[in-house]
Structure formats: structure tokens, C-alpha cells
Design goal:
alpha+beta; Glutaredoxin; 4-stranded mixed beta sheet; two-stranded antiparallel ribbon; 8 strands; binds glutathione
Length: 366
């Protein structure tokens, strides 16, 4: 098999890459990230303990879902997941940022805050991935231990007694909006899947429609969204791929999602970027850690604190750089669209520092 995907059925970013590979009709071996795979392949080949990892036919080992997709897009340009017209491409990059970096909140909350409904199921899934060769009772035991580590991230992400209601309210708004959207359209940008869909399928397939508690909510409240999840999971059957919507349209049914993105998520993206740039100035010799202290953030009307991630700026730089690369005329057209969400000033944010990725870690741009 030319490509190998190392990941887990319960992993957010693995689902993003798996759905993408299927859509591209690229054959791949699907390998569990077992404890041996971590020891023998993932850590030695990538230097980090993250999944998904993709081994290419040339023998390269890629980590980071966005980096994996962008690398494969170069060698497999057919069925591109990036729209080519300005508004659609910017919309896709913004939604990817939102899906990858913000939807982690509902995904983690609905997995770990409902142990009575979810814990045994999730532990089984984790255990089956970690030690598939051992009996089920041991898988459950090990799965619970692995799960404890991930559950430990929950308070760090700002998921707590103060914020949980706001996370749930926002989630209900999100799935309602998506359900209305998918009643009309097959994919986020219309008739054809884009990087935005692959980003959203991560939280929806690997957490929210995987774990029993949120799955019940989705099944009851948002049947069209569930249809999209199914569609995204079987994309290799889709031989005929349609074009992007004409005239650079972005469906208006996505407006509530862009409102959530710009009102709640964007201030957090900007704040974490500002904090990172200050940190880089204050620590010129240090390599960048995964998180740097705590920052305030807001969800709906509720305020709390969470750790400040450093990677998020790398994702934020993508739509910002794309916007800056456009002509004045294109930017004006985009500004009038962003005006709908009071976001025309936001997209002009220019971080005081740039970061890149070196050896699968974020690093200073030299
Ligand atoms: N931005 C990375 C994130 C990868 C990531 O966080 N993967 C999770 C599983 S879905 C993981 O391996 N977490 C291990 C950890 O947080 O230590 C990507 O897109 O691949």
C-alpha cells in the first residue's frame, strides 16, 4: 500500500485526514497507533507523540493534518480541496481554523464531562487502538488510563463549571445552523467538499458522532448534519465531483457559523497570538513550548481562563496571509462580505511575529 495512515478511530485529526484520503481516492493502509507504533514509528520518525501520521510512498513521515493535506495536494492536485476564488478560499481557511482550533471545546466537553454515558465506550475505543492484540478487559483497563491523560486537558482548555453551559448553548446554536445548512447543501461550501469540511469532520466523526452522549443529541436534533457526517465518511464512492458554487458565492446559511467564529473564537485566536509574540520577545533563546501560561477567553457571555496554545497562531496565519495576498479589489469585495459579521477589521490583524513548523513543532520564523 503506497500510503499508511497511523491514527485512531477516536482521534479528531485522524478523522480529518482519513476522510480526505478517501475523497482523494488515494489507497492507504489504515494502522492503529498502538503503543508499539508510538515507540517504533511515531516518536522515532516524527520526534513527537501526535497522531495522525502519514507515511508517503517515498518513505517520508508527515505529522499534522494540515501539513499532511497540503503535502498530498501538491502530488495529487486532482479533486483539490481548496477553492480558487478569493471569498470561497478565505471562507474555507477560516472554517478550517475554527474547526481545528475552536471545536475542540465541544468535542472535549461532550467526551469527558459525561462519564456515565461515555467513559466505558471511549475507554474501549482507546484500548482497542493502543493494544488491539490483548483481551477486551485489558483494553478497557489500558483505555481508561490513556483516557485519564486526555481528560486532564479538559480544565486546561477552559472547560469548567463556569463555561460548560455556554459551551453547550453554543453547541446547540452550531448544530442547528449546520442542520439548516445541510438541508440545502451537501457540503459546507455547497456542492463540493473543501478543507473546511475535512476540518469539521474531525470533531464530528471522531468525537461528537462517536461518543454515545453527543451522538444521541445529534441523532435527535440534527438529521441533516448526520447525513453530512455519513457523506463525509464515504467520499471514496463519489466518483463525480461537482464544481465550486458559481460567482464566488459562500452560502448565507453559513452566516451563523461565521458569527460564532468572529464573535467568540476570534478574540481568543488574537489574544493567544499577541501573547505568543510577547513571549517570543521576552524569551529570544527558548524554543516554543506547546502552551505559554493562561489567557482570558469568552464564550457567549461567559468569561473564563484557559491555557494559551502556541500552535493556534500557525493556523491563524493561513487566512490572514491569504487575505494579504489578494489584490485591493479582491480585498474590498471580501471586506463587504465580512462586514456582515463585523469582521472586516479583524481580518486585517497582523501578528507582531510569524511562526513556522520545524520538525513537527512550532518554531520562530527566521
Ligand atoms: N494540529 C495537529 C494536532 C494533532 C493532535 O493534537 N492529535 C491528538 C489526537 S487527535 C494527539 O495526538 N494528542 C496527543 C497529545 O495531545 O499529547 C494536527 O492537525 O495533526
Amino acid at each position: 500500500m503506497p500510503y499508511t495512515l497511523y491514527g485512531s478511530p477516536a482521534s479528531y485529526y485522524t478523522a480529518k485526514v482519513k476522510s480526505y484520503l478517501r475523497y482523494k481516492q488515494i489507497a492507504f493502509a489504515d494502522q492503529y497507533a498502538t503503543i508499539w507504533t508510538y515507540r517504533k514509528v511515531i516518536k522515532p520518525k516524527t520526534g513527537v507523540n501526535f497522531i495522525p501520521v502519514v507515511k508517503t510512498p517515498e518513505g517520508a513521515f508527515l505529522q499534522d493534518s494540515t501539513h499532511i493535506i497540503d503535502t498530498i495536494e501538491k502530488t495529487h492536485p486532482e479533486r483539490s480541496v481548496y477553492p480558487t476564488s478569493p471569498k470561497q478560499k478565505l471562507a474555507a481557511l477560516l472554517l478550517e481554523l475554527f474547526g481545528d482550533e475552536w471545536l475542540l471545546l465541544p468535542a472535549m466537553h461532550y467526551r469527558w464531562s459525561f462519564p456515565d454515558e461515555n467513559l466505558n465506550f471511549v475507554a474501549e475505543a482507546f484500548g482497542k487502538t493502543a493494544i488491539p492484540w490483548l483481551p477486551a478487559f485489558l483494553q478497557r483497563y489500558i483505555g481508561k488510563k490513556v483516557g485519564k491523560r486526555f481528560a486532564g486537558f479538559v480544565p486546561l482548555l477552559g472547560i469548567n463549571e463556569t463555561t460548560k453551559l455556554a459551551i453547550e448553548n453554543q453547541f446547540v446554536q452550531l448544530i442547528k445552523a449546520l442542520d439548516i445548512h445541510f438541508e440545502q447543501y451537501d457540503f459546507l461550501l455547497g456542492d463540493r467538499p473543501s478543507i473546511a469540511d475535512f476540518s469539521f469532520i474531525g470533531p464530528f466523526r471522531a468525537h461528537l458522532f462517536h461518543d454515545p452522549y453527543p451522538k444521541k443529541i445529534l441523532t435527535k436534533e440534527s438529521p441533516h448534519l448526520v447525513d453530512w457526517i455519513d457523506r463525509m465518511w464515504c467520499l471514496s464512492d463519489a466518483n463525480e465531483i461537482k464544481g465550486w458554487l458559481v460567482k464566488d458565492q459562500v452560502p448565507e446559511t453559513l452566516n451563523p457559523i461565521f458569527n460564532l467564529l468572529f464573535q467568540d473564537a476570534w478574540p481568543f485566536f488574537e489574544e493567544s497570538s499577541k501573547r505568543l509574540c510577547e513571549w517570543l520577545k521576552e524569551n529570544p533563546e527558548k524554543s516554543i513550548p506547546r502552551a505559554i501560561g493562561k489567557i482570558d477567553f469568552q464564550i457567549g457571555e461567559t468569561q473564563s481562563q484557559r491555557i494559551c496554545p502556541t500552535y493556534t497562531q500557525w493556523m491563524l496565519q493561513r487566512p490572514l496571509a491569504y487575505y494579504r495576498s489578494l489584490s485591493t479589489e479582491e480585498q474590498l469585495m471580501i471586506d463587504s462580505w465580512l462586514n456582515t459579521f463585523n469582521a472586516e477589521a479583524l481580518i486585517k490583524y497582523k501578528p507582531a511575529c510569524e511562526i513556522t513548523r520545524i520538525n513537527n513543532r512550532v518554531a520562530r520564523q527566521q
